[in-house]
């Protein structure tokens, strides 16, 4: 029997797998995709394009925008 998993995501936009028959742990929420482990990993590969945590992305994007804007 194939164990079903669900894709979960946290506030930092980091993805993981969690058993489909269990509630995600605190700080994580169901992303909406469920299936076999391989199906879930394939889905994560498609949607998780930037591995940096959300807070790091925002900080780096702000810094890049600020430095680019000042150089003009």
TrEMBL record:
InterPro entries attached to this UniProt entry: MbtH-like_dom (IPR005153), MbtH-like_sf (IPR038020), MLP_fam (IPR037407)
Any one cellular-component term (Gene Ontology): cytosol
Domain MbtH-like: 1-46
GO BP annotations, alphabetical order: siderophore biosynthetic process
Superkingdom of the organism of origin: Bacteria
Listed name of the protein: MbtH family NRPS accessory protein
The organism of origin for this protein: Nonomuraea deserti
Lineage summary: Bacteria, Bacillati, Actinomycetota, Actinomycetes, Streptosporangiales
């Amino acid at each position: 029997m194939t164990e079903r998993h669900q894709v979960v995501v946290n506030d930092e936009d980091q993805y993981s797998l969690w058993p489909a028959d269990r509630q995600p742990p605190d700080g994580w929420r169901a992303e909406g995709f469920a299936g076999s482990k391989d199906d879930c990993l394939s889905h994560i590969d498609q949607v998780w394009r930037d591995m940096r945590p959300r807070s790091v992305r925002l900080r780096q994007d702000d810094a890049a925008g600020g430095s680019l804007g000042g150089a003009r």
